[in-house]
Design brief:
two-stranded antiparallel sheet; about 50% helix; globular
């Protein structure tokens, strides 16, 4: 992707932000992203940032993708979350067998894929592939996708033999509308139901291969983007929109404080309150630190891949450490601001309380468990083996 194309996508996203901001309450009330928002994002080229050039994509560097995600989430948390999730799946599909990519993109380069990677189902090895059944939760943006990626263990003779991601067309699954939450209400993260469906071998990908960064898709997609670890790219896809939500909360808080008059303090203007200024400075620093660490680490990995060097495992561990730390910093910033926003910020429809709820909803994603990521990092620092596919 040329630098001019990159600027074009980012500029298109920037132009869209006021509209997404205006639709934020509509998005929350509807419990899904409006079709108009998805269409507008598609027209900017956003969903093709991580898609292979072979199938009409841009193969942009990952920092460009995360930057766009952060921008979108700063306008609407739910839209940023769904954009990030749907936007990373072209990257994941590019790791699959070439035939799987052909199945999805041969007729339409704009085909979208949702996911639910948690092992909520079961696959059984059969001739030519697997029989898959189960019910998966939290498939964000599934109403805007016609394929899905699902995670499940594979069994042979009653014993687990692998853990894979399975790619299914919409004819093979049902969407169950269950999404009714206090945060990220607009993401439409509904359940996916699969009842004894055959999945051909070429539409499966073992996590053992993704953790080794050696996947069959690299035969047709040899670029550095597709040599990055799943355990770095996907968790960062979760943290980037949360940092964006923190930025959105920050912007809304500063604007709110400019106009706020505190009756309880003899009509003091909040913009003259030195304590309010301290909180703003603290929050800004936390957001900046989270973003700088995330983008620096991902870019460092990407530069190793561009040079064709082996990706240092210590760097991969640092990516996970700072990814979860980035989420923690973002949440701390949002909390610090929300505490000082006053009672009027609690009103339904105000952006501050919506960003606060959305950020905390994103925090509970499994990719944000700090203890697991920190334990892996500490284990690596002691020179001990780290057995985890999410690195």
């Amino acid at each position: 992707m040329s630098e001019q194309d990159t600027h074009g996508v980012i500029a298109g996203v920037a132009e869209l932000l006021p509209v997404l901001r205006e639709r934020a309450q509509e998005t929350e009330d509807g419990r899904r992203i409006p079709d108009e928002s998805i269409k507008s994002l598609q027209e900017t080229g956003f969903f093709k940032l991580l898609q292979p050039k072979t199938y009409g994509g841009y193969e942009a560097d990952p920092v460009t993708f995360y930057t766009a995600v952060k921008m979108i989430a700063s306008a609407c948390g739910s839209t940023g979350w769904v954009a990030s999730i749907l936007g990373v799946h072209p990257w994941h599909l590019a790791l699959f067998e070439p035939q799987a990519q052909e199945d999805v993109w041969s007729e339409d380069f704009d085909t979208r894929i949702s996911s639910s990677y948690a092992p909520m189902g079961k696959a059984t090895v059969v001739d030519g592939g697997y029989r898959l059944s189960g019910r998966w939760s939290f498939s964000s943006g599934c109403d805007h996708a016609t394929w899905v990626l699902l995670g499940a263990p594979a069994f042979a003779d009653g014993k687990p033999v692998d853990f894979c991601t399975y790619l299914l067309p919409i004819a093979d699954y049902k969407i169950i509308d269950v999404w009714d939450t206090v945060g990220l209400r607009g993401t439409g993260s509904n359940d996916i139901l699969v009842e004894d469906v055959f999945v051909p071998q070429h539409r499966t990908l073992s996590f053992r291969l993704t953790s080794k960064c050696k996947t069959p898709g690299q035969d047709v997609n040899p670029g550095p983007l597709y040599r990055l670890p799943y355990g770095s790219v996907h968790p960062s896809t979760i943290t980037a929109p949360i940092i964006g939500m923190a930025q959105g909360a920050y912007d809304a808080h500063v604007e709110h404080q400019r106009r706020r008059v505190r009756a309880a303090y003899a009509g003091e203007q909040s913009k003259e309150d030195s304590f309010a200024k301290v909180r703003i400075a603290e929050a800004a620093s936390e957001i900046d630190a989270a973003w700088l660490q995330l983008t620096h680490n991902i870019d460092e990995l990407y530069q190793f891949a561009r040079r064709g060097d082996k990706l240092p495992f210590s760097t991969r561990l640092r990516v996970r450490r700072d990814q979860v730390r980035g989420t923690e910093r973002a949440i701390a910033a949002v909390d610090r601001l929300f505490e000082n926003s006053g009672g009027r910020a609690l009103k339904v429809g105000t952006p501050i309380q919506r960003f606060w709820r959305d950020a905390h909803a994103g925090r509970v994603h499994a990719a944000n468990d700090p203890e697991r990521a920190y334990t892996m990092f500490g284990t690596g620092e002691f020179g001990l083996p780290v057995e985890n596919a999410m690195v």
